Each structure stands twice: as structure tokens, then as C-alpha cells.
Amino acid sequence: MAVSVLLRSVMARFGLVGVDLFAIGFTLLVGLVMGVAMYLYAPSWRVRRVPGPPSLPLVGHVHLLAKYGPDVLSHLANQYGPIFRFHLGRQPLVIIASAELCKEVGIKKFKDIPNRSIPSPIASSPLHQKGLFFTKNSRWSSMRNTILSVYQPSHLANLVPTMQSYIQSAAQNLEAEKDGIIFSQLSLKLATDVIGQAAFGVDFGLSSPGAAINSKNSAEVTDFINKHVYSTTQLKMDLSGSFSIVLGLLAPILQEPFRQVLKRIPGTMDNKVDRINQGISNRLNQIVENRAKEKLRDSKNFLSLILEAMESEKATRKLFTSDYLSAVTYEHLLAGSATTSFTLSSVMYLVAGHPEVEKKLLAEIDGFGPPDLIPTAQDLQNNFPYLDQVIKESMRYYLVSPMIARETSRDVEVGGYMLPKGTWVWLAPGVLAKDPKNFPEPEKFKPERFDPDCEEQKNRHPYAFIPFGLGPRACIGQKFSLQEIKLTVIHLYRKYVFRHSPEMESPLELEFGIVLNYKHGVKLTVTRRQ
Ligand code: HEM
Which residues are noted in the entry as heme-binding (predicted)? Predict the structure, then answer.
């Protein structure tokens, strides 16, 4: 009532006497509803010609994730072909599910599609945004060039003794656990220790036996790692993340304002994520600051190498301001731990369930030389061809990163469809890896399909298997992680054999995060070899 009186007096002032208030209210309401509808549907409208299933208002196709689980995109590719839409809430993704089109997006048309889209879990986490993964255009290429220069093969080769000593120490845990171990937990600790040393020159001391008791600063380290694990596992791609992440899926425009408010309200998940990310940032800044002050640095770790480059080159100094330096260093921990650990656990799980593969693998490992002969980086690359096949097949079978996010930076034609600037184009290596055209009987674990002499391998499209991505934006850590995984498998199989623990579910259950993870872990029993 009071509002209508007020409105009338305002209207009278402007000479609008006699205008129907109801009509104005109705027009405003219709305008508002249309505005919201346009906001929600505009992104879908721009790519409407690309085929895809009907999407639900607000949630898009997220409900299909619940229905089909990890196979959702393979299912849709069968129905809609090699390029189709999948809506994450309001945001349509154009999914690329053929090897030839992946090559087109990742290599041939790279200059039109050079960056990654930033999904809502990352948009709500400033900590994750300034690493190489999400930086864009010229900043990205300058950062990548500097980072690649510290990934020389000689640098990797120098890391073999460091990796080996962590592996040997972690393997001692196996002796203590007669009833079996949760291998995926041990491998995450090992991978975190290795990357902690390689990236920061810091010994987290997580994987050595009795780590919690021995480590001088165990409480602080455990706290840091727990924060890291929490921060990473909260980057959910479904509707179970923090409120601001879920809102980011539905209405991105509201995500940042809500995050700013919610992070100040104790008890909310946004508040917890923010506190934890702050804690990680502070700890990282401290590590970076301490390293920067050191006169004599251990030049084997990534951070020291970048700091040295910064001291000698003005351009690098300008590029790596402290926030970017902390972010790329943290990114190493993030990218280097969960991915490598998941892949290592997959290898151990799959070999443990396939005695015929185990037999061939043991023959190759035993044939390399005496049990205490540590392979060099070159040996690892050239002298373990069957191990290579086992790792590739394990990565195909359980692909840690089944999606690769990219975004068009101008209008570009892909697969016969014109995609406007700003379209999210996501490659689907997970679909390619399970496509029977590329991999006959995809549900069978057959390392021999990667034998360079076999017909299946010869006939396969060269980009049908891209676990590390492709083109100028491919993974920088590929050689690093393969070196670590091979050294670990060789060391473990020289001493032990493994079987599935009877306590483990079958088939293995997986969960979606920013990378794939094992829901209940990989549990194995261990037997010492005679
Ligand atoms: C088994 C282990 C790993 C897998 C499966 C993996 C997978 C991937 C994939 C699929 C991409 C996206 C590539 C693309 O867009 O084409 C990527 C990018 C990246 N990875 Fe890895 N990765 C692994 C280990 C590592 C390690 C150990 C590090 C660091 C030492 C690392 C650092 C990065 C970085 C920084 C990028 C972004 C590159 C850029 O945008 O220029 N990754 N990784």
C-alpha cells in the first residue's frame, strides 16, 4: 500500500498521472523474467546447432552424471556423435570425442583455442588460478617457456637418486603391514614427498615408516598436507561442492559476490575452503621467501631454478611476481601428486589382478640386472618396453584426467559447427580411451595392445590415446611422472608381489573431482618374493 502511494506521488511529479500501475508492475515482472531467462539460456543459444540431449533448466545435464556415472560422455558420444553439447548447469561444454577432432582443436586450430576455460570450482579458488594451467595468452606462453627451461632432460636425470631414496623408504612400510595396505594412500604420500622435494626442496617426510613419529615438524606438515588434500578434493564438478561453487554452475554472475559474503560467515563450507586456502598460501609464501633469501640454493628443485632465472633475467622477474611464483609452485604439488599417485595405484591394482601380465613384467624387471642396480633415466626410457605398455594400458583403463578444458578466443569452425568466441570446448580423452574403434574389447586389460609391432597399435589414430593432452598446452610433467612411476614399479616388483585385498570392493568405485580418484582406495595384500 505504502509502496503504491509512494509510486503514485513519484509518478505525479513526473506528470504520469493516470498510468496503470498494474501494467507497469506486470511489464517490470515480464522484463525481469525475460532477463533471467536470457541470462540462463544465452550461452546455450550460441551453440544451439551443436547436437545434444535436452537439458533441464538450471542443472543442465548434471543429473545425467548421477545416472550414468563416469561413462556419461561415452554414452552421449554413441548417441550424438563426435561433437556434442553437455551442459554443466547453465554453461554448455562442447565435447570433442574423436581423435581427429582432438587434433584439430589441440594442434591445428591452437591459435584460435589457446586457453583453458575456468570451471566454477576453480573460479571460486584464487589459489588455483595463477598457475600455468589457467593463465592465458602471452602470459601463459612466457611462463611456460621459463618453466620448460627448468625441465631439461639432464635435470630429470638428476632427480633419479632423490626419487629412488623416497621410494626405498616408502617401500619399508610394506614389511610392517602383514594384513595388506591401502596402497593408494601410501602412493599419495610418496608422490607428495617426491614432488615436495622436486618442487620446493622441502622434505614433507610423509611416506617413510613411522613418519608421524619421526618427522620433527610432523604436526605442521600433516596440517599443510591435510589442507592441501581438502582444498583439492573440494574442487567438485557436480552439485556437492561449496555453495558458491554450486551457484557458479547455475548462475556464474552470482558466484563471486556470494563467495565474498559466505567466506566471512563461520560454519559455511566457503568459509572453511577460504581459511584453508589462506593457510596454504601463507605457508607457500613463507617457503618462497625463505628460498629467495638463501645464498647457496640446491639447484635441483624447481623453485630454486626459477628464483635463479629471476635473479639473472629482468623479464622473468617481471613475470613471476610473488603471487604467480607461489601459484606455480603450488600447482606442481597439486598436479604432481594426485595424478601420479592415481596412475601408480592403477598400475599396481591392474597388475595384481592379472597374473599373466605380472609374469611378463617380472621377467622384464628381473632381466634388467642385479636387484640393486638402479636404472638411469635413459634405462627407464629405453629398456623397459613391457613396463611402458603396462603403464599406457593402465592409464587407458583408468584415465586420471578424462576431460581437458579449452576455450575459443575467437569465432572458429570445429567439426562443421561455427563456435563463437568464448565457447568452452572440452576434449574427452576418456571417451577415446574406451572407444572400441580405437581399442577393441576396451573393457579388457591388455598391455600388448600398445606393443609397437602389433596391428592394433599400428592401425590406431595417433591421437586416440592422449592421457597427457596434446599440442603446445600438453602436460609439462609427463616425463617426470613416468620416471617416478617406472622407478617405483621396478623397485616394488623386485621385492614383492601384490594381490587384491578381500576387503576391497569389486569393481573399483571412482569419484569425480578436478581429477578422478578412488572412492575407497586401492587395497592390496603384499607377499615378499623368494
Ligand atoms: C600421471 C601423471 C599426470 C597426468 C596424467 C597429467 C595429465 C595432464 C593433462 C591431461 C593436462 C592437460 C593437457 C592439455 O591441455 O593438453 C596436464 C597439464 C599440465 N600438467 Fe600434468 N599430468 C600428470 C602429471 C603432472 C606433473 C607431475 C606435473 C608437474 C610436475 C604436471 C603439471 C602440469 C601442468 C603445469 C599442466 C598445464 C600445462 C599448460 O597449460 O601449459 N602434471 N596434465
Answer: 475
* Contact between residue 329 and residue 284 where contact means Cβ atoms under 8 Å apart: yes
Residue 330: the pLDDT is 81
Q: Which residues are annotated as a binding site?
A: 475
Cell numbers standing for residue 436: 572400441
- 412 and 335 in a common domain: yes
Is residue 60 domain-shared with residue 164, that is, in the same domain? yes
Total domains, the chain: 2
Per-residue pLDDT, 131: 87
For the CA of 144, the closest atom of ligand 1 is 41
Do 12 and 112 share a domain, yes or no?
no
Q: Can you tell me the distance from the alpha carbon of 514 to that of 527, in angstroms, rounded to the nearest whole number?
A: 34
Query: Are both 255 and 312 inside the same structural domain?
Result: yes
Q: Is 480 in the pocket of ligand 1 (CB under 6 A)?
A: yes
Q: What per-residue confidence (pLDDT) applies to 42?
A: 79
| pLDDT of amino acid 1 | 53
The reply to whether 11 and 145 lie within a common domain is no
Rounded to 5°, angle at Cα 176 from 172 and 180: 105
> In this predicted complex, what is the ipTM?
0.99
pLDDT recorded at residue 214: 44
Nearest CA to ligand 1 atom 3: 339
Say how many Å lie between the CA of residue 8 and the centre of ligand 1.
63
Q: For residue 507, is the peptide bond before it cis, meaning its omega torsion is within 30 degrees of 0?
A: yes
Ligand 1, residues 118, 142, 200, 468: which to mutate, most atoms within 8 A of Cβ?
A: 468
Distance CA 405, CA 94 (A): 10
Domain membership flag for residue 41 = no
Report pLDDT digits (tens) over 35-47: 777 777 778 889 9
Q: Ligand 1 centre and the CA of 331: distance in Å?
A: 10
Domain containing residue 80: 49-528
Question: Contact, 466 vs 494, CB < 8 A?
Answer: no
Which CATH number is 408's domain given?
Answer: 1.10.630.10
Which of 512, 514, 508, 511 shows the shortest CA–CA distance to 522?
508
Any domain includes 410: yes
| pLDDT number for residue 371 | 92
516 and 368 together in one domain: yes
Residue 395, in any domain of the structure: yes
Residues 8 and 76 reside in one and the same domain: no
The reply to whether 498 and 421 lie within a common domain is yes
Give the pTM.
Answer: 0.88
Does 148 reside within a domain? yes
Segment holding 197, helix H or strand E = none
Tally of residues, the chain: 530
Low-confidence ranges of the chain (pLDDT < 50): 212-216
Cα 209 from chain centroid (whole Å): 29
Q: For residue 449, with 0-12 CB atoms within 10 Å meaning exposed, 13-18 middle and 19 or more buried, which class applies?
A: buried
